[in-house]
Design brief:
This protein has about 400 residues and is α/β, with parallel strands linked by helices. The protein folds into five domains: about 15-115, OB fold (Dihydrolipoamide Acetyltransferase, E2P) (Beta Barrel); about 145-270, Hypothetical protein af1403, domain 2 (Rossmann fold, 3-Layer(aba) Sandwich); about 275-310; about 315-355; about 360-405, no CATH class. The chain has helices at about 15-30, 30-35, 115-130, 160-170, 190-200, 225-235, 250-255, 265-270, 275-310, 310-315, 315-360, 360-365; strands spanning about 35-50, 55-60, 65-70, 85-95, 100-115, 150-155, 175-180, 205-210, 240-245, 260, 370-375, 390-395, 400-405. The strands form three sheets. Strands 1-2-3-5-4 form a five-stranded mixed β-barrel. Helix 5 (about 190-200) runs parallel beside helix 6 (about 225-235). The longest helix has about 45 residues, at about 315-360.
């Protein structure tokens, strides 16, 4: 057995962690290759910090390295970097001894095309859009006052705590049901689809949130799965996608009925603020009371107007005036009827005078006679109508007799 090294005897061979990292830093800085080199790779998890510095990773099919582009170098960029871009990065290796981490300090970036991951994302996005899975017309509206809310996420992450906190503050009336699922890794899509099937089998959700916190593009890649996207498109309940941060987009965001920029924002979108609802109800009650008071005020004004009207204040005078009016109309009707009778009588008398003037008996009274055939009764008005031996009847004003013509 090899003897144990005595620290007192081998003091020169033992490094402290700080000394070791300092030595590593010196070795790396002394290497001329690492002080000025070009690295080809694909950008992943790109972040523009509020300080103006850019942080991201460069990766290929075998490995990745953390990178930093300082604020002073950003204005020299000739394009806007994004996840999935293939680039050639110029810079040097730096070793941060406090954490024992090496990083690539980038001075400049040259665009070299889009990465395979980005191309796969765009290809699937185009295919599903052509099938109509992103159409707004097929998306379900969110309920106004949900009773039961499902949350598909990791049971151990901060996401579920954030959602519970927001909903307990804004809308504690709803029942929240956690449906645990893996949200990262190779098996995550199958686990998420299993959670969807479980929620559908329960059958009593008003809305479901599928959520995950921030992470790299690789961490969020499970939400770009085609089978998961198609399962979400067939999901019978409204579904809100809340994946990553506001700048992160996945296929799930386009298929879901609503996208939230963060899980906390999804909790705010899914349910109203109870305090705001109570304020709204109080406002409605106030407006109803004001409207009712206005209607009562108008009714009272109408009642006062009716009370002051002659119909109610002086009914006897109105009745007397009406009676006088009726009497006047009755008198006028009587006078009119008398006048009308007089006129009609005058017309009758005139007609009688005309009839008397045309009456044949009046002519006979003046000495004239009527001759008629005794057999036929026909009047004889011409001498040619008389024949010898014909019996005629002579009519006078006071009688008649017959004669025989010779």
């Amino acid at each position: 057995m090899q003897d144990l090294l005595d620290p007192a005897q081998a003091a020169e061979a033992v490094f402290s962690v700080g000394d070791l990292n300092t030595h590593i830093k010196r070795v790396l800085e002394a290497d001329p290759i690492l002080s000025d080199l070009a690295v080809a790779g694909e950008i992943s998890n790109f972040k523009l910090h509020s300080s103006g510095h850019c942080y991201f990773s460069l990766k290929d099919e075998r490995a990745q390295i953390r990178c930093c582009l300082w604020k002073r170098s950003v204005p020299n960029l000739r394009f806007r970097p994004a996840d999935g871009d293939r680039v050639i990065a110029l810079g040097s290796i730096d070793f941060y001894g406090a954490r024992g981490e090496a990083s690539f300090i980038v001075r400049d970036l040259h665009f070299a095309g889009q990465g395979a991951q980005f191309e796969a994302f765009e290809r699937l996005k185009t295919e599903l859009a052509a099938e109509g899975l992103f159409e707004e017309s097929r998306k379900m509206p969110l309920p106004l006052l949900p009773r039961r809310i499902g949350v598909i996420t990791s049971p151990t992450g901060a996401v579920i705590r954030d959602i519970v906190h927001v909903l307990s503050r804004r809308y504690p009336l709803a029942t929240l049901v956690l449906i645990p699922a893996a949200v990262q890794g190779f098996s995550a899509p199958l686990d998420l689809m299993r959670a969807l099937s479980f929620a559908e089998a329960m059958g009593d959700f008003d809305v479901v949130i599928m959520a995950r916190g921030g992470g790299s593009a690789e961490d969020l890649w499970c939400f770009n799965d085609e089978d998961l996207a198609r399962a979400v498109a067939l999901f019978p309940f409204p579904l809100i996608s809340a994946i990553g941060h506001e700048t992160d987009f996945t296929i799930l965001d386009f298929v879901a009925d609503r996208r939230a920029p963060t899980p906390s924002a999804a909790a705010e979108i899914v349910a109203p603020d109870l305090l705001q609802l109570l304020g709204y109800v109080r406002g409605l009650k106030l407006r109803m009371a004001q409207n009712a008071a206005g209607e009562i005020r108008l009714a009272r004004q109408k009642l006062e107007w009716l009370k002051s009207s002659r119909a109610l204040s002086q009914p006897h005078e109105i009745t007397s005036e009406a009676r006088n009016r009726v009497a006047q109309l009755r008198n006028r009707a009587g006078e009119a009827s008398k006048c009308r009778v007089k006129i009609e009588r005058q017309k009758v008398e005139g007609a009688r005078a005309q009839l008397r003037a045309l009456d044949p008996r009046g002519v006979l009274e003046r000495g004239y006679a009527l001759l008629s055939d005794a057999q036929t009764g026909a009047l004889v008005t011409a001498f040619s109508q008389v024949k010898a031996g014909q019996r005629l009847v002579v009519t006078l004003h006071d009688g008649s007799f017959s004669v025989v013509c010779e």
